[in-house]
Amino acid sequence: MMQKLLTLTLLVAFSLSACARQPQVGRGLVSAANIDCMARAMYFESNRSSRDGMIAVGSVVMNRAQSADFPNAVCAVVSQPNQFAPGVMTKAMDGAGRALAKASAAAVLAGERHPNIEGARFFHAAWYDADFNNIHYVLTAGGNAFYEKRRPENVTSPDPLPQTEGITG
Question: What residue spans carry the region label Disordered (predicted)?
Fold first, then answer.
Protein backbone atom coordinates (compact mmCIF):
# COMPACT_ATOMS: atom_id res chain seq x y z
CA MET A 1 0.00 0.00 0.00
CA MET A 2 2.78 2.42 0.96
CA GLN A 3 4.63 1.60 -2.28
CA LYS A 4 1.52 2.43 -4.36
CA LEU A 5 1.01 5.71 -2.50
CA LEU A 6 4.64 6.69 -3.01
CA THR A 7 4.47 5.79 -6.71
CA LEU A 8 1.25 7.78 -7.15
CA THR A 9 2.72 10.79 -5.33
CA LEU A 10 5.83 10.75 -7.51
CA LEU A 11 3.73 10.39 -10.66
CA VAL A 12 1.56 13.39 -9.74
CA ALA A 13 4.61 15.50 -8.80
CA PHE A 14 6.33 14.61 -12.08
CA SER A 15 3.19 15.41 -14.08
CA LEU A 16 2.77 18.77 -12.42
CA SER A 17 6.42 19.71 -12.93
CA ALA A 18 6.16 18.79 -16.62
CA CYS A 19 3.06 20.97 -16.95
CA ALA A 20 4.91 23.89 -15.44
CA ARG A 21 7.26 23.93 -18.46
CA GLN A 22 4.39 24.17 -20.89
CA PRO A 23 3.29 27.77 -21.48
CA GLN A 24 -0.42 28.16 -21.88
CA VAL A 25 -1.81 28.40 -25.38
CA GLY A 26 -4.92 30.32 -26.27
CA ARG A 27 -6.73 32.96 -24.28
CA GLY A 28 -4.60 32.59 -21.15
CA LEU A 29 -1.50 33.59 -23.07
CA VAL A 30 -3.05 36.43 -25.09
CA SER A 31 -2.41 39.42 -22.86
CA ALA A 32 -1.33 42.96 -23.69
CA ALA A 33 2.11 42.35 -22.15
CA ASN A 34 2.69 39.08 -24.01
CA ILE A 35 1.47 40.56 -27.30
CA ASP A 36 3.85 43.49 -26.85
CA CYS A 37 6.85 41.26 -26.05
CA MET A 38 6.12 38.84 -28.89
CA ALA A 39 5.46 41.67 -31.36
CA ARG A 40 8.78 43.27 -30.42
CA ALA A 41 10.68 40.07 -31.20
CA MET A 42 8.82 39.73 -34.50
CA TYR A 43 9.21 43.39 -35.47
CA PHE A 44 12.91 43.70 -34.77
CA GLU A 45 13.92 40.21 -35.95
CA SER A 46 11.98 39.87 -39.20
CA ASN A 47 12.14 42.37 -42.02
CA ARG A 48 8.91 44.02 -40.80
CA SER A 49 7.01 43.10 -43.94
CA SER A 50 6.86 39.31 -43.94
CA ARG A 51 4.05 37.62 -42.02
CA ASP A 52 5.74 34.25 -42.57
CA GLY A 53 8.97 35.58 -41.05
CA MET A 54 7.10 37.02 -38.08
CA ILE A 55 5.12 33.84 -37.43
CA ALA A 56 8.38 31.85 -37.68
CA VAL A 57 10.07 34.12 -35.11
CA GLY A 58 7.05 33.74 -32.84
CA SER A 59 7.14 29.97 -33.26
CA VAL A 60 10.79 29.97 -32.15
CA VAL A 61 9.88 32.08 -29.09
CA MET A 62 7.16 29.57 -28.17
CA ASN A 63 9.52 26.62 -28.75
CA ARG A 64 12.00 28.25 -26.41
CA ALA A 65 9.33 28.88 -23.78
CA GLN A 66 8.49 25.16 -23.89
CA SER A 67 12.14 24.15 -23.52
CA ALA A 68 13.89 23.61 -20.20
CA ASP A 69 16.88 25.46 -21.70
CA PHE A 70 15.06 28.82 -21.73
CA PRO A 71 12.65 30.74 -19.48
CA ASN A 72 9.04 29.53 -19.74
CA ALA A 73 7.42 32.96 -20.11
CA VAL A 74 7.17 34.84 -23.42
CA CYS A 75 8.53 38.17 -22.11
CA ALA A 76 11.35 36.41 -20.26
CA VAL A 77 12.39 34.62 -23.47
CA VAL A 78 12.28 37.80 -25.56
CA SER A 79 14.16 39.90 -23.01
CA GLN A 80 16.98 37.40 -22.44
CA PRO A 81 20.33 39.15 -22.94
CA ASN A 82 22.08 38.58 -26.27
CA GLN A 83 19.29 36.44 -27.73
CA PHE A 84 17.35 38.94 -29.84
CA ALA A 85 18.11 42.25 -31.56
CA PRO A 86 19.70 44.93 -29.38
CA GLY A 87 17.03 47.21 -27.93
CA VAL A 88 14.23 44.73 -28.65
CA MET A 89 12.47 45.72 -25.42
CA THR A 90 13.15 49.47 -25.55
CA LYS A 91 13.15 50.74 -29.15
CA ALA A 92 10.00 52.20 -30.67
CA MET A 93 7.96 50.24 -33.19
CA ASP A 94 6.14 52.23 -35.86
CA GLY A 95 4.60 52.07 -39.30
CA ALA A 96 2.81 49.20 -40.99
CA GLY A 97 5.33 46.71 -39.58
CA ARG A 98 4.08 47.46 -36.06
CA ALA A 99 0.47 46.59 -36.91
CA LEU A 100 1.55 43.39 -38.70
CA ALA A 101 3.75 42.41 -35.74
CA LYS A 102 0.91 42.97 -33.23
CA ALA A 103 -1.55 40.93 -35.31
CA SER A 104 1.01 38.17 -35.90
CA ALA A 105 1.89 38.11 -32.18
CA ALA A 106 -1.76 37.67 -31.22
CA ALA A 107 -2.08 34.83 -33.75
CA VAL A 108 0.96 32.95 -32.38
CA LEU A 109 -0.15 33.45 -28.78
CA ALA A 110 -3.55 32.06 -29.74
CA GLY A 111 -1.87 28.91 -31.09
CA GLU A 112 -0.78 29.53 -34.69
CA ARG A 113 2.67 28.20 -35.61
CA HIS A 114 4.68 28.27 -38.80
CA PRO A 115 4.29 24.74 -40.18
CA ASN A 116 7.95 24.44 -41.18
CA ILE A 117 9.46 25.49 -37.86
CA GLU A 118 8.59 22.31 -35.94
CA GLY A 119 11.05 22.16 -33.01
CA ALA A 120 13.50 24.87 -34.14
CA ARG A 121 14.65 27.19 -31.36
CA PHE A 122 17.25 29.21 -33.24
CA PHE A 123 17.68 31.50 -36.22
CA HIS A 124 20.13 33.99 -37.66
CA ALA A 125 20.10 36.54 -40.47
CA ALA A 126 19.78 34.72 -43.78
CA TRP A 127 22.93 36.39 -45.13
CA TYR A 128 25.06 35.20 -42.20
CA ASP A 129 27.32 32.22 -42.89
CA ALA A 130 27.22 30.11 -39.73
CA ASP A 131 30.08 27.67 -40.01
CA PHE A 132 28.97 24.98 -37.57
CA ASN A 133 28.42 21.30 -38.25
CA ASN A 134 25.38 20.91 -35.96
CA ILE A 135 22.94 23.28 -37.70
CA HIS A 136 19.96 21.68 -39.46
CA TYR A 137 18.03 24.35 -41.40
CA VAL A 138 14.24 24.08 -41.60
CA LEU A 139 13.13 27.41 -43.12
CA THR A 140 14.27 30.75 -44.50
CA ALA A 141 11.64 33.50 -44.25
CA GLY A 142 11.50 37.18 -43.38
CA GLY A 143 15.23 37.55 -43.86
CA ASN A 144 16.14 34.83 -41.34
CA ALA A 145 17.34 31.23 -41.57
CA PHE A 146 15.70 29.05 -38.90
CA TYR A 147 17.36 25.92 -37.60
CA GLU A 148 17.56 23.12 -35.08
CA LYS A 149 20.77 22.08 -33.39
CA ARG A 150 21.44 18.38 -34.02
CA ARG A 151 24.28 15.93 -33.69
CA PRO A 152 26.42 16.39 -36.83
CA GLU A 153 25.56 12.95 -38.18
CA ASN A 154 21.83 13.84 -38.03
CA VAL A 155 22.11 17.08 -40.01
CA THR A 156 20.51 16.56 -43.43
CA SER A 157 20.05 20.24 -44.36
CA PRO A 158 23.37 21.97 -43.52
CA ASP A 159 22.77 25.02 -45.73
CA PRO A 160 20.05 27.68 -45.44
CA LEU A 161 17.02 26.89 -47.56
CA PRO A 162 15.73 29.23 -50.29
CA GLN A 163 13.54 32.08 -49.02
CA THR A 164 9.91 30.95 -48.67
CA GLU A 165 6.93 33.26 -48.22
CA GLY A 166 3.15 32.93 -48.44
CA ILE A 167 2.74 29.82 -46.29
CA THR A 168 0.96 31.36 -43.29
CA GLY A 169 -2.49 32.99 -43.44
Answer: 150-169
Cα torsion 18, 23, 24, 28: sign: positive
**Range 109-125 average pLDDT:** 96
Please state the rounded mean pLDDT for residues 110-114: 96
Contact yes or no for 155/143 (Cβ under 8 A): no
Q: Report helix, strand or coil for 136.
A: strand
The dihedral built from the CA positions of residue 114, 117, 122 and 127, taken in this order, carries a sign that is negative
Please state, in angstroms and rounded to a whole number, the distance separating the CA atoms of residues 36 and 112: 17
pLDDT-derived band of residue 9, with 50, 70 and 90 as boundaries?
A: very low
pLDDT of residue 143: 93
Level-2 CATH architecture, domain 26-154: Orthogonal Bundle (1.10)
pLDDT number for residue 28: 62
Question: How many angstroms separate the Cα of 94 from the Cα of each of 5, 41, 48, 124?
Answer: 57, 14, 10, 23
What is the C-alpha to C-alpha distance for residues 159 and 143, in angstroms, rounded to an integer? 15
**At 6, phi and psi to the nearest 5?**
-65, -45
Segments making up each domain of the chain, as ranges: 26-154
The predicted model scores a pTM of 0.83
